[in-house]
Amino acid sequence: MELRGIGKRYGTNQVLQEIDLELVPGRCIGLVGENGAGKSTLLSIISGKTPQTQGTLTLDGQEVSFRSPRDARALGIQLIPQELAYVPHLSVAENLMMPNWPKNRWGVTQRWLRRAGADAVARLGLDIDVRRDMIDLSLAERQLVEIAKALLGDARVLILDEPTASLHARETELLLGKLRELKADGVSLIYVSHHLDESFEISDEIVVLRNGRMEDRRETTETSLGRTVGLMLGGEYEKPEATPVAAGSPTEVVLRLQGWNSELQPAIDDVSLEIRTGEVVGIFGLVGSGAETVARALGGHEKRVAGSVFVQGSAAEVPVPSTPRRAQALGIAYVPAERKTDGLALNQTISENLTLMVLGRFAGAAGWMKGRAQLAGAQALATETDVRCTSVRQDVGELSGGNQQKVLLASRLAAAPPVLVLHEPTRGVDIGSRTQIHQQLSAFARQGAAVVLVTSDVQEAIDATDRLIVMRDGRVVDELTRERKTKSLALETAAGGAVTHD
Known about the structure:
This protein is α/β, with parallel strands linked by helices. The chain folds into two domains: about 1-235, 3-Layer(aba) Sandwich (Rossmann fold); about 255-495, Rossmann fold, CATH 3.40.50. Helix content is about 30%, strand content about 25%. It has 17 helices and 20 strands. The chain has helices spanning about 40-45, 70-75, 90-95, 110-125, 140-150, 170-185, 195-200, 225-235, 290-300, 325-330, 340-345, 350-355, 370-385, 400-415, 430-445, 460-465, 485-495; strands at about 1-10, 15-20, 30, 55-60, 60-65, 75-80, 155-160, 190, 205-210, 215-220, 255-260, 270-275, 280-285, 305-310, 320, 330-335, 420-425, 450-455, 465-470, 475-480. The strands form four sheets. A six-stranded mixed β-sheet has the order 6-7-8-3-9-10, sandwiched between helices. A six-stranded mixed β-sheet has the order 16-17-18-13-19-20, with helices on both faces. A four-stranded antiparallel β-sheet has the order 2-1-4-5, with helices on one face. The longest helix is centred in the middle third of the chain and has 16 residues, at about 170-185. The chain is globular and about 70 Å long. The two termini are about 35 Å apart.
């Protein structure tokens, strides 16, 4: 497949210019760039979701024009999107086979569905019961099912947009191994990931986009990670030093969990922990460890978790919040893992999303909203958190993933809660935005709050926290601080055995 002079304009906004690429059987292009660089638009054009404004696409020497993603899939072009596309209350098997439904639909039985679905997950080496509803799976399991769904098709070109964003090291290695097999079979790959080490590991060439233009393109062996980051950001990148906890360890408990238990999957067993003033505390574990259950329960999204919780300012310990409203009443602000389905109102403005948690500030005596005050407040929040937009009046769904995440975080910070809980806060976010978010979390904690960071990204778990709590099989198994807070020890403890890489 060849792309020649590909460009895309929305009104007067030129988001892509003069992109030339060749997709060769058995080779992988690592496509990198900041959020907003044009990566998602380019992938949408290649996969048939969005028509280009300029340029041509040719497949096997013939010019092609896609009216929809179905046209692209019919020609062997498969996209695994960053934002998962599944039907929550259908089974894993039904979701897997939906785009691969046999033509003789009247002959399809549940038995056939289960067998075909089981074969699909087995092909990727997964241990998932295909009879379960998608909504009952963990985020990482849903991601793996979506990957298995795309691999069911006879792909000639496979496009992966942040495929490992919610996966742990073991699942990531499994996926990269499968992609190497596909390359050996002659499949052409486009791999998009903010985990640049993965891009360098799987790709044959690295293509850097910046501001809609191709900034650089060269063989992976002829470039470096540092050079690539510099090209992405438009200058030399220096990783900022983390702000240490103030001298004299914090002593005031802001959040206490006591005896949390649940038979949910993933289950948790007697989870107890304390978070103190000024701390950013991470919770890390592999898929099934129970870390995700703790995060969701803190946000009021798990009704069947027993135990108690204490938040600074409360008179006494209370039961685990069973609704988001109860969590908010306790002083817990929650940033969910899936921003587009659980965190943002995509068809509302940036201003409306930014001020969602503090609308009372902008209400008059009769209950009318003070529009100008709301816009001014939203603009101040957007400036403070570096949300890059044309106007806070534009729909939040028009922003890049990284800027959407900044809006989501800023909306929770606006209320200045005593406890901030974040579940996968930098999933699908570029290195620049990721650094900004980590700095904001540190600064917020140092103002006297408690920050709980639940992440499946072990590097983030190490870099962005003061203490790291490791979970395995539903229990807290270790707490890592200072010189013990290393990537290798975190992975070893979470896996229950030694690991050989750092």
